[in-house]
Amino acid sequence: MRVDPLYRLTLVFTQERVVEVPGEPGVEERLTIAEGLVDGRLHGRFRGAGRPRRRGDGTLAQDVHGLIELNDGGTILVELRGYVRTYPPAHPQVVGFATHVTSDRRFASLNDSVCAVAGEVRATPGADTLHVLDVAELVWEPIEP
Hints:
Layout lengths: L1 E18 L9 E12 L3 E7 L2 E2 L5 E11 L4 E11 L7 E10 L12 E8 L7 E10 L6
């Protein structure tokens, strides 16, 4: 197996709606709206919606569904899942995976590919909090005997 960089996604969660459900910490429902830019082997604009859930241990389980509108007109649907780790507190880490679906023949190989996601949350006083995610395609290679 090898990992080939695919793109960097820089996004901001622009809206959030919370529905409180009585009970133990970690059971509330959220809906977030995200917008951002994609740069790398893919170039374009990202828009999506997420349903994050804060676990009792503070980790945020993320589930984002969206699309990349490529600068040249193509469209790729994206599903991002993973965790926003609340440590270190000043610099939360993001780990997860992504899958893609497209009718764009140039990127058809992504339809049955899995990508690794690693990134961080960058909070800047007086500005939007950025989520910077590197997305890399996991490429199958024969396993050595």
